[in-house]
Amino acid sequence: MPGKAAGVAGGEDETVAAPAAAGSGEGPRGPLLDDLMPWSVRPLRTGRPWVTAPDAACLRARWDRLVRAAGEERERLFAPTRARTQQSAVAALPGRPGATGRFARESGPCPEPVRILHGPFDEQWLLPDHRLIDVARPELWRVADDRQLFLVEHGRVPNDPGPAVSVTTLLPDGHSPAGRPGRVRPLYRRPGGLEPNLAPGLLPALRARYGDAVTAESVLAWILAAARPSPAGCVVPLPADAARWADGVELGRELLRLQLRGARGAERPRLPGGQRPYVRAAVPPDPGQLSYDADERVLHLGSGRVSPVPTGAWEFRVSGVRVLELWFERRTAGPGAAGLEAVRPRTWPQEWTSELLELVSLLALLAELRPRQEELADALAAGPGAGADALRAAGVLPVPEAARRPASVLDHREEGPDGQFALL
Fold first, then answer.
1. pTM of the full predicted structure?
2. Which of 182, 343, 367, 388 is 20 to 30 A from 161 in CA distance terms?
3. In this structure, what are the phi and psi dihedrals at residue 297, rounded to the nearest 5 degrees?
4. Whether 191 contacts 148, CB under 8 Å
5. What does the alpha-carbon distance between residue 265 and residue 260 come to, in Å, rounded to a whole number?
6. Mean pLDDT over the full length of the chain
């Protein structure tokens, strides 16, 4: 059921509820994620690829080139779409100090790029200017703070053993490397960690079954450990006994800790000594191609070598796509790059090598936990569970439509087009 957030004049602030599966919330052996975390948001749609990049410096260079250009050259570089032209009147992004005048008149300094998650496990940068983004999903920006966690669904690919969901503290763009894009589900509906994005009555129902220690974050941890894709939507089986729940939550908390990647005071992913990847030969300025030697456990970036790289890290896939290959492809200039997309680092930055080493460690550690997730899935499939019928009996299902729409969080003024303020 479509619904709109409390709006900003001139802004695109629409959230469309995910379609409910036939049968009202019962997936194979469990309820649907769409019923457990009912408010979801579609992926961002930038409309012009040059507003994101793995390197913040090149975003600043792209901005400078654009605002220095004039006439037809500036129009070509801007790459107008039906949703955005240089004459579009739009509001500022919530929580951002960006300008709201028509971009055709823009000549000022570049806004500070912000860190985002571009698809699964790929931390990149974005120009946070609403005038440059076709559909920025302002409702996500309103609830993004240091307490928020975003659950991201991945596109479903049949017979893909990769994770169904991942989690991040960064603002995710929600893009899937293959398959139908999933949705972004904030854990909290309001800033400050307020009002969990859970079906009304779900927490009391789960506490009655599994104990008083059940919290919004433990539900998120369970989802990370147990969620799996299905044709009906992402399914989250629920166990019949508290012991199985506790084991799954413990596993999910470890998955959460790794995927936070040092946020909230957590340690950054690190493999044990002797297994940590190191640069054995420097990555050349233009590495050209990526390959893997499974026997030697060596990752080749042109003449550069990184090892040891566990096979689990190399083979880690999301939506059927190998994560390391996709990460590398996004950082190597293709011959077809044109316009502002062609403004890229001339040589391979040292920062990318450091990010690669951390990504290898993260994927290797996640791969090591995969057998435990499979064991949990087998146990849930074989044993009794608490499905949608139990949630329906507890009054949790069906989910009220209001829970599928964003909360009104406009407790401060937001600047609208050309300096006007939003109507509250």
1. 0.91
2. 388
3. 55, 45
4. yes
5. 9
6. 89
